[in-house]
Write a structure and sequence with these properties.
- By secondary structure, the protein is of the alpha+beta class.
- The chain has one domain: Heat Shock Protein 90 (2-Layer Sandwich), CATH 3.30.565.
- The chain contains 5 helices and 5 strands.
- It has a 5-stranded antiparallel sheet with strand order 1-2-3-5-4, with helices on one face.
- A hairpin with a 3-residue loop joins β2 and β3.
- The two termini are 12 Å apart.
- It binds adenosine-5'-triphosphate and magnesium ion.
- Magnesium ion binds next to α2.
Length: 153
């Protein structure tokens, strides 16, 4: 197991997410998982990154119209970013609250809409930020460091 990737080239992976594309979240999470396993990263890091990717991509598919997921691996950290076009988030503090959800009935029927995605992403990240414009779209950025004070596991 390694704590940093000094000798590994930086890697950027991109996944376009279409409207109601409920398939890409699981697909991108498992593709990144495989890459991180090949790099020999710790299980806990891989688990946290996979959760963030899944929840972030699912939010684009459910709440936005379409977007792009970018995962960047550098020697110290993994950055996960989604950029979407969509309704945006009028109240970020409210959206971050456990149990808050505006998921449509169709998504609820599929088991989504517990309002736990963003709180889970926050818990799994070392850094998380949201930049949003109502009626235009949202950018979510999350970072997981290989050596973290908050997640020493
Ligand atoms: N990319 C996005 N665009 C627009 N709104 C969003 C986006 N991401 C999150 N939201 C808003 O924030 C709310 C909370 O998101 P969160 O991921 O915590 O819960 P959820 O997606 O509703 O349910 P769950 O993730 O538990 O299935 C959403 O219901 C939605 O209103
Ligand atoms: Mg969600």
């Amino acid at each position: 197991m390694v704590d940093s990737l000094q000798y590994t080239p930086q890697i950027t992976l991109e996944f376009p997410i279409g409207e109601k594309d409920f398939f890409m979240a699981g697909e991108s999470a498992s593709r990144v998982k495989k890459t991180l396993q090949q790099l020999g990263l710790k299980q806990d890091i891989i688990r946290r990154v996979a959760i963030i990717i899944y929840e972030a991509a699912m939010n684009v598919a459910i709440h936005a119209s379409h977007g792009l997921l970018t995962v960047h691996i550098d020697p110290e950290s993994i950055s996960i970013q989604t950029d979407d076009k969509g309704v945006g988030i009028p109240d970020i503090e409210l959206a971050m609250r456990e149990g808050y959800s505006t998921a449509p009935y169709e998504a609820q029927e599929m088991g989504f809409g517990a309002g736990m995605g963003l709180p889970n992403m926050k818990q799994c990240s070392d850094e998380l930020s949201l930049d949003t414009k109502v009626g235009k779209g949202t950018t979510l950025k999350a970072k997981v460091y290989f050596i973290s004070k908050e997640h020493p596991g």
